[in-house]
Amino acid sequence: MKRGFDRLERLCRSTCGSALGIRPAVTRFSFRISATDGSARTGVITMQRGEIRTPAFMPVGTAATVKAVGPVEVRAAGADIILGNTYHLMLRPGAERVAKLGGLQRFMGWERPILTDSGGYQVMSLSELTKVTEAGVSFASHLDGSRYMLSPERSVEVQRLLGSDIVMQFDQLVPTTSTQEQQAEAMERSIRWARRSREEFDRGGAHAERAAIFGIQQGALDERLRAASADALIDIGFDGYAVGGLAVGEGQEAMLGCLDFAVDMLPSERPRYLMGVGKPDDIVQAVLRGIDMFDCVLPTRSGRTGQAFTADGPLNIRNARHADDPEPIEAGCPCPACNAFSRAYVHHLVKAGEILGAMLMTQHNLWFYQRMMQDLRQAISDQRLQSFAREFLVRYLRRN
Ligand SMILES: [Zn+2]
After folding, report:
1. Quick one: which of 292, 271, 266 has its CA closest to 380?
2. Of 69, 70, 62, nearest in space to 114 by CA
3. Fewer CB atoms inside 10 A, N or C side of the chain?
4. What is the pTM (predicted TM-score) of this model?
5. Backbone angles phi, psi at 270, to 5 degrees
6. Are 138 and 130 in contact (CB under 8 A)?
7. CB 300 within 8 Å of CB 273
8. What pLDDT does residue 92 have?
9. What's the CA-to-centroid distance between 310 and ligand 1, angstroms?
10. Neighbour tally for 31: CB within 10 Å
C-alpha cells in the first residue's frame, strides 16, 4: 500500500506538482508549453532553484566555472541554467568534497539550476585504458593516470553529491562509424543502464524529491534503433529526454536528417534536449524540429580563441583588419564588451594574450547565444518562426 502511494505521489509530482493536494509545497519539475509553431515550442520548465525558459541554451561550466566569466556575468547574459561535467568534477575537486561544501551551486556561486552530464562522453573521449563491461566503464584519469570506475549507479551518485538539478542517465557511446551491430549493442546496453540510472536516482531520498532525471535516446543515425531506444526509455519513464550520440562528426545534414525522425519519437509533453549542439545555425534548425534544450562549449571556447559570433556570421577578432576599427565587436549588441570597447581594443587584448580579451570575447558570445534563444522564443510565440529562421540563416551563413 505504502509503495503504491509512493508511486502515485511520484507520478503526481512529476506531472503537475501539486495535483490532488498530496504535496502542495514547491514544484519539483514541470514543463509548461505556452506556444507552438510547426514542430517548435516555447515554454517554461519550473524547478525549485528557478525557471528555465525554453528553447534554452546552457553555457558549459566544465570545471565548476564557465571559463573566463563569473556567475553574475553568465546570468546577466540571460542564462537560466548551466551545465556541469561529472567526469571533470569527480576527478577534481572530487564529488564528495563538493558535497561537503554544500553542493556545486554554493561551491561556484550559481544558485540557479544546474544540469550535469553523466560522464560517459568524457570517459570515452578523454580518459585512457578504458574498459567497458555490463557493470560500467573503468578508466584511467587523464590528469594523473589513477583508475576509476563509472557505472550507472556511481554516475548518478556523483551527480547527487554535486547537487545536480537535472541528472542525466549513464549511457554508452560508440562512434557513428561503428558497425550496425556495435551501435545496436550500445543502444541496448544504454537502455539497461537507463533503468539502473533511474533506480539509483529514485533511491536518492531528499535529492530525488527536488531534482529531475533525463533519459538519453541512442541509436546513431538508424531510425529503427532510435525508435527502439525511445520506446524503451518511455517505458522506464523520465522527466525529459535527450537526443544523444549526435554532433560527433556526422555533419549537419546527417544530424538534421536524424532529428527529422528522432525528435517525434520522444514525448511532446516533456523537454527534449539535443546534447552538445552547437553552432548557431544548428540550433535554429533543431528548434524548428522541436528541440527545447541545448549545450555547447562553442561560445566560450571560441571566445577564448578569438572567434566572435555575430548575426553576420563568425568573426575572427585576431584578423589584422580589426587593428584600427573603432566599432564594437557587433554593432547594436547590448553586451558589456560591445557597450564599452572597440574591435581595435579587443583585437589588441587578444593578440597580446591579455586575460581581459578572453573575458570580453566570452561575454559577447554568451550574450549573442542568449539573445538568439530569446529571439527564437519570441518568434515561436508570435507564430513567425519560419520567416525568422529563414532570415537568420541567410544572414548568418552569407559570408561563410
Ligand atoms: Zn557584444
Report:
1. 292
2. 62
3. N
4. 0.93
5. -115, 150
6. yes
7. no
8. 96
9. 8
10. 20
